[in-house]
Automatic annotation (TrEMBL):
Family listed: Belongs to the FAD-dependent oxidoreductase family.
PROSITE patterns on file: RIESKE (PS51296)
Record lineage: Eukaryota, Metazoa, Chordata, Craniata, Vertebrata
The keyword Flavoprotein is assigned to this record: yes
Entry protein name: Apoptosis-inducing factor 3
Region (Disordered): 20-62
One matching Pfam family: Reductase_C
One annotated GO biological process: execution phase of apoptosis
Molecular-function GO terms, alphabetical: 2 iron, 2 sulfur cluster binding; metal ion binding; oxidoreductase activity, acting on NAD(P)H
Keywords, ordered alphabetically: 2Fe-2S, FAD, Flavoprotein, Iron, Iron-sulfur, Metal-binding, Oxidoreductase
InterPro entries according to UniProt: FAD-oxidoreductase/Apoptosis, FAD/NAD-bd_sf, FAD/NAD-binding_dom, FAD/NAD-linked_Rdtase_dimer_sf, Reductase_C, Rieske_2Fe-2S, Rieske_2Fe-2S_sf
A GO CC annotation given for this chain: mitochondrion
Occurrences of domain Rieske (ranges): 71-166
Species, as recorded: Clupea harengus (Atlantic herring)
Length: 600
């Protein structure tokens, strides 16, 4: 993930030469800050960090021959340095990689959403997922950047008579994922005891990754995670894209998993005060809990809207699976109104078009996503929605929600327009859920965001914060304080907080990465484009096959794409290396450097 390695000095680089150039030298350090598995010489095919027998925690190998498969997958000269190939072992597939003259083999699917890693980006001992940017060490399979919780299985590779042979555990070939080994809690504690060595407020990705990282790194004291939700940690970004998914389908970890690894979860618990001097948290039900280390990762809450008719039913701020399921049910062959052109609002609108009789979107801006993607890309996305029967009412706001027998029937706009509505979804932005900290002594800015250092430390010793609730120094933008409410970023914050809780100095060093999905199409984004002053677009906006480079003062600061994988992941690698992409380098119109030459 980068640890606290110092950021290389920015140097100009021609994109054509950088994005897909095969790495020509082995770094002494790998991205996780440890000695590179490639820095010492090994014979071709040697495996750097043990074998699949000792690297996987998702299964317990019995060392019986029938549990393994062995296959010749190619000739030693079939792959050049820097190339990858998905290979079939009969009972499953693996990703074969050749870098610096050595072969390695790992799982071929990203454990996050199953993306084919052969289409990803290979660079300096790790591979980056083409869909959402997660990174994995090719020697260990360990996840080094997010999103996602699991790592990849690794497989034995050897070369005999110029033949490349892979030996793999059959179960690992099927699961395509590996949970890193975790320690157990050694303290004997009654679950009703009002003390936890680490207390985590919030069970989103920041909280969950923090808890798992502590166990992975050998922490053996008590960990308690509390949440206002009644559910186990779940994949919140899917809520607005897959409205009919159940809580079980969305969950990130099972109750058995948390119990096995001694991560206690208290559900439906709302924190009302934090006393940092007494190191005590008080809950709404009066229960108190003391802590030694605290992580605040309470996420965001919907921004309130002012309108008449707050008591009308079937108006939703989608926060949980029940909300999403109700929206889908109520919209079936009915009229749906979406208030706000946030990602959540627009994703819900897209998800409802094949269910609802009509879908209307109300927005305060002229064009959706203009502040994030720019006017041209925003217009192209708006056109996609209009083609799919979505009606926009822009430069507008809600004045009133009218009901009949308490059920929503009409949405009245400030323009006077009246829309038929059987269900309304409000996706008009959010703010940090930090009201309970007002008298705590934890420093917050004027908007309620908690200010933290690069180590996720607040102004209070032993109190950390992460995820949507924080502003932190973004190394990518010369340590500018930024709030980046991305799913991926929350994972990173959780890991960094955990390592620093354990006294292992680690700083946030990652490239912001997010995605959205509408009508079966995905848009991906990497970097930090806040305040961009121009957009350079390559490709065809009308066909929604394009790359948009966001520039500021002649420097590319962010990139977005549709139907051009893995360009966003490739540019993220360049950003992460500290190199600079200049505006003039992306204005040429030459798209040849977008073609992936590193895989077969």
């Amino acid at each position: 993930m980068g640890g606290c390695l110092s950021k290389p000095k920015p140097v100009e680089v021609k994109v054509e030469l950088t994005l897909l150039d095969k790495e020509k030298e082995a770094d002494v350090m790998s991205p996780n800050g440890k000695a590179s598995p490639f820095s010492d010489s090994r014979p071709n095919g040697a495996l750097g960090h043990g074998s699949d027998e000792d690297a996987s925690a998702t299964f317990r190998p019995s060392h019986k021959p029938r549990d393994y498969v062995e296959a010749t997958v190619c000739h030693v000269k079939d792959l050049e340095n820097g190339q990858m190939r998905e290979v079939d072992l009969g009972t499953g597939r693996a990703l074969l990689i050749k870098e610096h003259g050595e072969f390695s083999a790992i799982g071929h699917k990203c454990p996050h959403y199953g993306a084919p890693l052969v289409k990803g980006v290979l660079s300096k001992g790790r591979i980056r997922c083409p869909w959402h940017g997660a990174c994995f060490n090719i020697a260990t399979g360990d996840i080094e950047d997010f999103p996602g919780l699991d790592s990849l299985p690794i497989f034995q590779v050897r070369v005999e008579k110029d033949r490349v042979i892979i030996r793999a555990n059959k179960q690992a070939l099927q699961t395509q994922r590996r949970t890193q080994a975790m320690s157990k809690c050694s303290a004997v504690i009654n679950s009703s005891t009002g003390f936890s060595h680490v207390l985590i407020i919030g069970a989103g990705p920041a909280g969950l990754v923090c808890a798992e990282t502590l166990r992975q790194e050998g922490f053996t004291d008590r960990i308690v995670m509390v949440t206002m939700d009644k559910h186990l940690p779940f994949d919140r970004p899917k809520l607005s894209k897959s409205l009919e998914s159940t809580a079980e389908q969305l969950r990130l970890r099972s109750a058995e998993f948390l119990q096995t690894h001694d991560i206690e979860l208290l559900t439906e618990k709302e924190v009302v005060t934090v006393d940092v001097k007494a190191k005590t948290v008080t809950f709404q039900d009066g229960f108190k809990m003391e802590y030694r280390k605290l992580l605040i990762a309470t996420g965001s809450k919907p921004k309130p809207l002012n309108y008449i008719g707050k008591d009308v039913e079937n108006v939703f701020h989608p926060r949980n699976p029940e909300d999403a399921n109700s929206i889908a049910r109520l919209a079936n062959n009915k009229n749906a109104v979406i208030v706000g052109t946030s990602f959540i609002g627009m994703e819900v609108a897209a998800a409802l078009t094949d269910k609802a009789h009509s879908v209307s979107v109300i927005g305060r801006e002229v064009i959706p996503f203009r502040k994030v993607f720019g006017e041209k890309v925003g217009k192209a996305i708006m056109k996609l929605f209009e083609t799919n029967r979505v009606k926009f009412y822009m430069l507008n706001e809600v004045s009133e929600m009218r009901g009949h027998h308490g059920q929503l029937k009409e949405v009245v706009l400030k323009s006077g327009k009246v829309l038929r509505a059987d269900v309304c979804v409000i996706g008009a932005g959010s703010g940090p859920a930090t009201a309970f900290l007002k008298q705590s002594g934890v420093h917050m800015d004027s908007k309620g965001f908690i200010t933290v250092t690069k180590t996720m430390q607040t102004n209070v010793e032993g109190v950390f914060a992460g995820g949507d609730v924080v502003t932190f120094p973004l190394s990518l933008r010369n340590n500018k304080k930024a709030n980046i409410p991305h799913w991926q970023m929350a994972h990173v914050h959780g890991r960094v907080a955990a390592l620093n809780m354990m006294g292992r100095p680690t700083e946030v060093k990652t490239v912001p990465y997010f995605w959205s999905a509408m009508f079966g199409k995905s848009i991906r984004y990497a970097g930090y484009g806040d305040g961009f002053d121009d957009v350079v677009i390559q490709g065809d906006l009308d066909d929604l096959k394009f790359v948009a480079f966001y520039t500021k003062s002649e420097e590319v600061v962010a990139v977005a794409s549709m139907n051009y994988d893995p360009i966003v992941s490739r540019v993220a690698e360049v950003f992460g290396s500290g190199k600079t992409i200049r505006k003039r380098d992306v204005e040429t119109g030459d798209m040849s450097w977008l073609i992936d030459k590193g895989s077969q």
